[in-house]
UniProtKB/TrEMBL annotation:
This is Collagen-binding domain of a collagenase. Pfam families: Apiosidase, Collagen_bind_2. Residues 31-366 form the Apiosidase-like catalytic domain. PANTHER family: ENDOGLUCANASE (PTHR37836:SF3), LMO1036 PROTEIN (PTHR37836). The lineage of its organism: Bacteria, Pseudomonadati, Bacteroidota, Sphingobacteriia, Sphingobacteriales. InterPro entries: Apiosidase-like_cat_dom, Collagen-bd_put, GH. Residues 368-459 form the Putative collagen-binding domain.
Length: 461
């Protein structure tokens, strides 16, 4: 019991060590091995949420409520669009741009709260960023959504002016991450994306920069060798295996671990993560609202698969929350039926913290993906087993609760202590301590079925 109490205390310190009451937060850096993130030299596990329309649709009291809930749920990064459309306005009716020109942000002179301009588009963003810092949350800013760029509303010259404005305005904010792009292929306006990335890097060397690509693609395809790209992102997307028919894409189906595997092998070494997997409550394939919707089990699977494959974190998403769906709206996207203030507490969102807790419960920076731990058949599609390990521990994830055969040769010691970790509630069930053997077999609790997911924890003795 004493050991359990100590472990809980250590995990709590790791989880909340970056939440500073006065909003002063350490900058996120890439770890020494270039695989993960750290802040003040400590492990930083990216647990993100797609709050895409936070700036444009939420009033201040709503924004604070959302940030407070996500902070308590263990999220530490929110991905947000700065300009979603060329005619963007916020919840108070103020425009982001003058004459819909990306090179002329509509900034109110001065910044005196209470003098009538505190709801200025840019002052409102400033306020939300400050409030996020108070709650230990980093904001991943998407400067301008891909559809705006693709629609020829801006070019490289205007993009450079706009990026200059953003960098100078936010480079002194510690809780900023730059997320170039926005659901788009890098080949769509390649010069524009490089103009934004290079300008941000030139004027702001303190913050990480990445690129958010379109579904079933990864940033490394176009920008891996660019100096401005600090880490890679991929969007595994919202399609099922059967819907994965595009000839332009990689056709990995739902196997988001394959994107990690591809990025992991690239040089120079850079961190990578799934910045947009299938969202909880969104229809399979997005557009046919009669099809089934992705569930908590699905978002768990994408999380554990990608992280165990070597990702530096994971971004969760919810259909109702990402668009901040409110009562009274006549139009919604992708068949959204719920309201953000209810769906923010959906099961999948609450379960994400258990992934974060597990990854921070063991030595973090030494962790590597290692499929050689799995003896025999690693499985295909939903039956796939994913393994990761450190020097004296290993985690193996099964989405279906299938039998797991383990090769223990990579682990030190003469015995191993085994346990089951439940991704639905974070509970640990001891299996016992056994002598090492060439192969050990473990049978998860319950019947084999999709969503009966478990993590086998092995600690070397």
């Amino acid at each position: 019991m004493l050991k359990k109490i100590i472990l809980i205390g250590i995990i709590s310190c790791l989880l909340f060590s970056f939440k500073i009451s006065d909003g002063v937060m350490p900058h996120i850096k890439v770890s020494a091995n270039h695989r993960y993130f750290m802040a003040d030299g400590k492990p930083f596990f990216w647990l993100g949420d797609t709050g895409w329309l936070l700036f444009s649709k939420m009033k201040r009291e709503e924004a604070e409520k959302y940030l407070d809930i996500r902070s308590k749920q263990g999220f530490n990064v929110i991905q947000v669009m700065v300009v979603h459309s060329i005619g963007e306005t916020n919840a108070y009716g103020d425009s982001a741009l003058i004459h819909k020109n990306i090179a002329t942000p509509n900034v109110t002179p001065g910044n005196t709260f209470g003098k009538g301009n505190e709801y200025d588009y840019w002052d409102h963003i400033d306020w939300i960023i400050s409030k996020a810092a108070q709650k230990g949350i980093y904001i991943a800013l998407v400067p301008v959504w891909g559809a705006v760029v693709k629609g020829n509303h801006i070019g490289a010259a205007k993009a450079k002016i706009y990026a200059d404005f953003l960098a100078k305005r936010y480079r002194d904010r510690p809780n900023i991450i730059w997320m170039n792009g926005g659901d788009i292929s890098g080949t769509d306006s390649l010069k524009t994306w490089n103009a934004i990335g290079n300008t941000l890097l030139r004027l702001d060397t303190s913050h990480l920069i990445t690129f958010h690509p379109r579904g079933r693609t990864q940033s490394s395809t176009w920008f891996h060798d660019q100096a401005w790209l600090s880490f890679n992102c991929f969007q595994s997307g919202h399609r099922t295996y059967a819907q994965d028919t595009s000839k332009k894409d990689l056709n990995y189906g739902e196997d988001n671990w394959k994107y990690v595997q591809a990025d992991y092998a690239k040089t120079p070494v850079k961190p990578t993560l799934d910045a947009e997997p299938s969202y909880e409550r969104i229809p399979h394939g997005l557009h046919n609202f009669k099809l089934p919707r992705w569930t908590a089990a699905d978002v768990r699977r994408y999380g554990y698969w990608s992280v165990f494959a070597g990702a530096c974190g994971y971004t969760y998403g919810n259909n109702d929350v990402m668009q901040m769906h409110k009562p009274g709206e006549k139009k919604t996207a992708y068949g959204s039926k719920g309201y953000w203030f209810n769906s923010v507490n959906d099961p999948g969102a609450k379960q994400m913290i258990y992934l974060k807790k597990l990854m921070l419960s063991r030595p973090y920076f030494e962790r590597v993906p290692d499929q050689s731990l799995i003896a025999g058949n690693q499985g295909q599609k939903y039956d796939r087993l994913i393994a990761t390990r450190g020097s004296n521990y290993a985690f193996v994830y099964t989405y279906t609760g299938r039998d797991i055969n383990i090769n223990t040769e990579k682990l030190t010691g003469t015995k191993i202590k085994a346990s089951w970790y439940n991704p639905r509630n974070g509970q640990i069930t001891a299996i016992g301590t056994v002598n090492k053997a060439k192969t050990l077999k473990f049978n998860p609790p319950g019947q084999k079925t999709n969503g009966n997911d478990w993590v086998l924890i092995i600690d070397a003795i």
